[in-house]
Design goal:
Length: about 550
């Protein structure tokens, strides 16, 4: 048996009475030297405390929520014989070193910052203060932007090592003139962060209008900002998400690392820890649910457990720069949200797509005539308005297309309301505003509403409510081009109509070829709910409505 040693919180600067937010080991576990034992968190930083010895945990001395300081006993360890002597634990920011950190850590010591504050009213450069041994640490969040008026001690950036993340506070109040860092930069003590015009100098400057963009939430302190009204729900966004839009997820460095390794997007996880913090278990649970069929009914999920056993090989890791010049472009927030949703829907829903041609020669002539007649009203009717109305009629005839699978997986919930979503292309990505109660609205009203919602979408001003409640979606690429495509179903809906550009084609009328305007339709449907024959009937019926729009009235 090894020697019994007490593993204590080492000297990690000025931090005192800091809360234990994670206990990463338990009695009976075998731990390696340097293995993280607990995570502690102040309002500005979180860090993991590594083990000073290798061995077997005999008893835990701390639990979640305890307050610890330097010297607090974390656990009792039966240390391995050869390592029993032990060295002081590696401080969280001292990569590879074994010297305890000397310097006080400003993020744990509110009100201190080693950047020299100016003595006169002028712009000065704020630099990374002395926060111990940390060097070349990655900037993971930039919390302010030029024009922002900031307070003394307000967090400016968050940096993260493999063991800790911390926010760097401002040494003075003022207005940010320019930023010297961006996400992904590596910084060390003395690295410039930004140029700040101090309060009195700044007072002369006009105060910027409040930004509609959310201020990112600081990772350790999780101060949540109000969600942006421009929060976008993508084609498929019915996320299980609970994190506020615009909020940076609250998670400790090890959880962030763990999530990164698994390719998990933390914005999609609801934290179960204190203050909504995401824990290792939350990430594990999220992955388990994704593999076994989250969002799918429980019964299907059980059957889908086998899917979890699927041998998915690792994503190829390629150093592209080896083959030529490259450029990194950050994804927009909408794209970051929509990607996982699209991937989930594509993988989880057995999609089939039927293609059909609709002869819209007469309908297009009618549309052109309508637009001429109503030129002065300013409302322009596009094909989309007719498509929405025709889809409602087809959905009424084939109600399974206007349904969702019940959560238990043993029933279909047919909806007796017809809210039609339409994909809108915006500079930041795809969003799907919804025309509510399309069955009760006329063509002009629908045309007016789609134009207004599309404009709102392009300006990033859609409210969450504008994108909720859809029962069926249309993705119209008609204004752009293409022939046919395979749209991805917008879960939990069960079908989506893709529409491409109408073109004049020769059509055999029994005696001769005549020029007709043909609209290509592509209907993707969920094979768990709908069968191929029903989909073919839906498409044929829809085409017949578009060919003779009077049938919509029948
Ligand atoms: N065939 C031929 N012409 C068409 C057409 C069709 N199916 N649909 C639209 N048009 C014409 C319109 O009549 C208009 O012509 P004019 O400028 O001569 O009047 C022009 O194309 C532009 O129309 P529009 O696209 O601005 O208007 P819309 O109502 O058809 O569509 C909207 C609105 C929001 C759906 C569209 O702007 C858009 O964003 N489409 C992209 C959707 C998308 O990205 N889907 C992909 C999802 S999968 O990644």
């Amino acid at each position: 048996m090894g020697n019994l040693v007490e593993v204590k919180v080492p000297d990690i600067g000025d931090f005192k009475d800091v809360e234990v937010i994670e206990v990463l080991v338990k009695a009976g576990d075998t731990v390696a030297r340097e293995q993280s034992l607990i995570t502690v968190e102040s309002d500005k930083a979180s860090m993991e405390i590594p083990s000073s010895h290798a061995g077997r945990v005999k008893a835990m001395r701390v639990k979640l929520g305890d307050k610890v300081s330097e010297g607090s006993v974390i656990l009792e360890l039966e240390a391995d014989e050869f390592a029993a002597a032990g060295n002081p634990p590696r401080p969280p920011f001292a990569k590879g070193g074994s010297e305890p950190r000397q310097a006080a850590s400003p993020p744990f010591e509110k009100g201190q910052n080693s950047s020299a504050a100016p003595t006169t009213d002028q712009a000065f450069q704020v630099t990374v203060p002395d926060i111990g041994d940390f060097k070349d640490v990655e900037v993971i969040e930039v919390l302010v932007k030029p024009g922002d008026r900031i307070d003394k001690d307000q967090s400016l950036i968050t940096v993260e090592s493999d063991k800790a993340s911390m926010e760097i506070p401002s040494p003075a109040a003022g207005v940010v003139q320019s930023l010297s860092v961006k996400i992904g930069d590596k910084v060390s003590q003395g690295s410039p962060i930004l140029t700040l015009a101090t309060s009195e100098a700044a007072a002369a400057a006009p105060r910027p209008a409040p930004s509609s963009a959310p201020r990112p939430t600081a990772s350790p302190s999780a101060t949540t900002s109000p969600p942006s009204t421009a929060y976008a729900v993508d084609m498929v966004a019915r996320p299980e998400v609970t994190a506020s839009a615009g909020a940076i997820p609250h998670a400790s460095p090890s959880v962030r690392k763990f999530a990164r390794e698994l390719g998990v997007d933390l914005t999609r996880i609801a934290g179960s820890g204190p203050k909504g913090r995401i824990t290792h278990d939350d990430v594990r649970e999220h992955v388990k649910r994704a593999l076994s069929g989250v969002g799918r009914p429980a019964a299907a999920a059980a059957a889908g457990a086998a899917v979890g056993g699927l041998n998915v090989i690792a994503w190829p890791q390629v150093d592209f720069a080896k083959f030529g010049p490259i450029e990194r472009v950050e994804m927009s927030r909408i794209r970051k949200l929509s990607g996982p949703n699209l991937a989930r829907n594509w993988v989880m829903i057995p999609h089939v797509t039927n293609h059909e041609d609709a002869d819209v020669t007469e309908l297009e002539a009618f549309r052109v005539q309508l637009n001429k007649e109503s030129e002065k009203s300013g409302v322009k009717v596009t094909m989309l308005a007719f498509l929405i109305k025709a889809c409602v009629a087809a959905l009424k005839k084939f109600p399974d297309f206007n349904s969702s699978i019940a959560p238990e997986g043993d029933a279909i919930i047919r909806k007796n309301y017809w809210h039609i979503g339409f994909a809108a292309d915006t500079p930041n990505g795809l969003v799907v505003p919804v025309i509510k109660d399309a069955d009760k609205k006329g063509i002009f009203e629908i045309a007016q509403e789609t134009a207004a919602l599309a404009a709102k979408a392009r300006d990033g001003k859609l409210a969450i409510g504008d994108m909720q409640g859809g029962t069926f979606s249309i993705s119209s690429l008609g204004g752009i081009g293409g022939t046919y495509f395979t749209p991805i179903i917008n879960a939990p809906e069960v079908a989506i109509l893709g529409v491409c550009r109408a073109t004049t084609k020769p059509v055999w009328d029994g005696k001769q070829f005549v020029p007709r305007l043909i609209l290509p339709l592509s209907l993707s449907w969920d094979h768990r709910v709908v069968d191929g024959a029903a989909a073919a009937r839906f498409n044929a019926y829809l085409a017949s409505l578009l060919a003779d729009f009077r049938r919509v009235l029948l």
